[in-house]
């Protein structure tokens, strides 16, 4: 079956620190991989995606590379800001475009 | 371009009652998916509708049912509410089914509380 395992949180970082949130997946076939972000009181917003092996998704300084050999899609950012404080969800999309999400990682960035 | 909208924003129901949640998909999108997000958890796939037909279902009992209308808006119905049904219910639309590369666009959700 399809599933996503995400790094447990919460994560607290100082502003300008380096961020890594680990994500691994199990899937049948060739899924697409996504990172979504949820700010307090809001719905999920797409952060970035990658649709095939070795693709790198990037947006707003965040990056993630689709690694088929390690079934991973780790999220990274070189220098976090207070405004990056949110919950981050890793997800995969099955061939039927049905999404499977991880449990989410809460990030708090302190000035 | 109008995004995904959901109504109501909040709802309080009593155990055993029935509830209907509504979703309007983004313009041009013919596929709607529903998710349940319990507190502190990731969204769980309930089901998907494509061109008014159910097109996949997650591990939810039959008392969770849905509809999609010709304008691609959708309803989620839950019968015989249980306390564990308390959650944020998210609707998401996408331009088509059958292509995993398309992202889904999420609405703000309906917060359901069952007492």
Overview of the structural elements:
The complex is a heterodimer of chains A (111) and B (115). Chain A has strands spanning 3-6, 11-14, 19-21, 23-26, 32-38, 44-50, 56-59, 62-65, 75-77, 86-93, 99-101, 105-110. Chain A is mainly beta. In chain A, the strands form 3 sheets. In chain A, strands 2, 5, 6, 10, 11 and 12 form a 6-stranded mixed β-sheet that branches. Chain A has a 4-stranded antiparallel β-sheet with strand order 3-9-8-7, with no helix packed on it. In chain A, strands 1-4 form a two-stranded antiparallel ribbon. In chain A, a hairpin with a 2-residue loop joins strand 7 (56-59) and strand 8. The mean pLDDT of chain A is 93. Chain B has 115 residues and is mainly β. Chain B contains no helices and 11 strands. Chain B has strands at 5-7, 10-13, 19-24, 31-37, 44-50, 53-57, 64-68, 74-78, 87-94, 105-106, 110-114. In chain B, strands 2, 4, 5, 6, 9, 10 and 11 form a 7-stranded mixed β-sheet that branches. A 4-stranded antiparallel β-sheet of chain B has the order 1-3-8-7, with no helix packed on it. The model of chain B has no long low-confidence stretch (mean pLDDT 92). Chains A and B meet through strand 5, strand 6, strand 10 and strand 11 of A and strand 4, strand 5, strand 9 and strand 10 of B.
